[in-house]
Every structure is written in C-alpha cells, then in structure tokens.
C-alpha cells in the first residue's frame, strides 16, 4: 500500500495545478479523505498526514471509526442515508452530502438536536444508477425546506458519470455550478449554498477547474 503522505503530496500538486488553470489560486479547496474502505489504523494515518475531513458512507463504519478516533476530525456522511438510520448518525456528523428527498428532511428535523450542514445531492447526468434529484427538482426541493429549522443547505453535491470522456464529466460539474448560482440568487437564509461537493479520485482536477470547494478522495489517497 502506498504511503499516504506521498499520495497526498501528489494530490496537492495536482490541486494547485487545477487551481492555477482555473484562476482560483486564492480559493481554499477542502479534501475529504474518503475512508469508507479502509481500517481505523489507515484512517489514523490520514489524520497524521494533516487532513481533518473524513468521509464515510455507512452508519456502522462511521460510528466504529468515531469511537476509536479521538483526534479532532470533521465527519462527512457521503452515502445514501436510509431514514431509519438517521437517528443513529445525524448527531454524530458535521456534514451530510446526500440530502435527496423530503422524507429524509423530515426525519432529520425530528432527530437532529442542532442544525445540520447539508449538501443537496443532484443527479445531474440523469444516470439511473445514481441517487439524487434531477436538475429540475433541485430548486423546488430547496424552497420546500424552508419549514425545517434543522436543515442548513450549505451546498450542492454530485457524482460524475463513470466515463473516460472528460467533456461529459466537465459538463456535469459545470451544470451543478450553474444550479448553485441559481440557488444563491434566491438569498434563502437557510440555504446559503456556497459550497460545491464534487470530484473524486478520477476527476477532481476537472471538478476544481469547474468550481469545486470540497473534493471527495478515496482510492487516490488511501487505496
Ligand atoms: C467512494 C466515494 C468517493 C470516493 O471515490 P474514489 O473514487 O475512491 O475517490 C467519493 N464520493 C462518494 C459519494 C463515494 O461513495
């Protein structure tokens, strides 16, 4: 297994390259280390390398890691969240990246003890295998969240299709950015929507060129 610090150094160089190409030298891009497939020990190495944002996609994995990791960390839930699991995790996380339906919002409202920073997940590419709201559904959905006191829409999240075609990937990220601008224009106090969670191991440079503020990296970092 490759050394995490070495992987991180390569990733950081590529991030800088993408920022420069996009004229984003002064923007801060948060790396979320996606640790869903690795052990507690490997996750501790991530923290020792200086990263603090960790991404998990199953309640069990998240809770097990939280229990054995005392270091300061920010916990991101990046997977589909079943409503019946909300109670278990919602007060254990710092960000939810997969808000995609009203029933989930209702359950969060019921279970959260303080406002939760949420990304609304959009399925921009329209692939059937992907979770998330269609482009057309995103704005009406966000408007309908006004009645909830425990939901704060900090941004939008998407996953690009699994393809070698860079232009297709780029278009998905560009569309998400456009959608984010539309949400920001609404000036909703509960939905500042300043963040864009997009880009994974294979496409984070494109995502940064198109405006990502959080990238979610698993295999390229810990694989
Ligand atoms: C697993 C996962 C990632 C990380 O994917 P890699 O290709 O390993 O970087 C990012 N986002 C989500 C939602 C994931 O499930």
TrEMBL record:
Highest taxon above the source species: Bacteria
Gene3D superfamilies: Alanine racemase (3.20.20.10)
Known role: Pyridoxal 5'-phosphate (PLP)-binding protein, which is involved in PLP homeostasis.
Name by which UniProt lists this protein: Pyridoxal phosphate homeostasis protein
InterPro entries to which the protein is assigned, alphabetical: Ala_racemase_N, PLP-binding_barrel, PyrdxlP_homeostasis
Organism: Ureibacillus thermosphaericus
Residue numbers bearing the N6-(pyridoxal phosphate)lysine modification: 36
NCBIfam families assigned to the protein according to its UniProt record, in alphabetical order: YggS family pyridoxal phosphate-dependent enzyme
GO molecular function ontology, one term from the record: pyridoxal phosphate binding
Key words, A-Z: Pyridoxal phosphate
Cofactor: pyridoxal 5'-phosphate
SUPFAM superfamilies: PLP-binding barrel
Domain Alanine racemase N-terminal stretches: 8-223
Family label: Belongs to the pyridoxal phosphate-binding protein YggS/PROSC family.
The keyword ATP-binding is assigned to this record: no
């Amino acid at each position: 297994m490759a050394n995490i610090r070495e992987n991180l150094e390569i990733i950081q160089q590529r991030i800088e390259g993408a920022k420069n190409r996009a004229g984003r030298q002064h923007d801060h891009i948060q790396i979320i280390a996606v640790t869903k497939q690795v052990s507690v020990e490997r996750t501790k190495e991530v923290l020792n390398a200086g990263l603090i944002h960790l991404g998990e996609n199953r309640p069990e994995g998240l809770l097990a890691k939280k229990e054995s990791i005392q270091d300061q960390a920010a916990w991101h839930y990046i997977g589909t969240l079943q409503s019946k699991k909300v109670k278990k995790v919602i007060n254990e996380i710092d960000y939810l990246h997969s808000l995609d339906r009203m029933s989930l919002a209702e359950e969060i409202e019921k279970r959260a003890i303080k406002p939760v920073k949420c990304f609304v997940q959009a399925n921009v590419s329209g692939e059937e295998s992907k979770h998330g709201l269609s482009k057309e559904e995103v704005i009406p959905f966000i408007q309908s969240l006004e009645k909830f006191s425990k939901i704060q829409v900090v941004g939008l999240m998407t996953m690009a299709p699994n393809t070698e075609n860079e232009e297709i990937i780029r278009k998905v990220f560009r569309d998400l950015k456009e959608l984010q601008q539309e949400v920001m224009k609404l000036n909703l106090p509960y939905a500042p929507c300043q963040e864009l969670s997009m880009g994974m191991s294979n496409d984070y440079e494109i995502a940064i060129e198109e405006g990502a503020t959080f990238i979610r990296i698993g295999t390229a970092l810990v694989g």
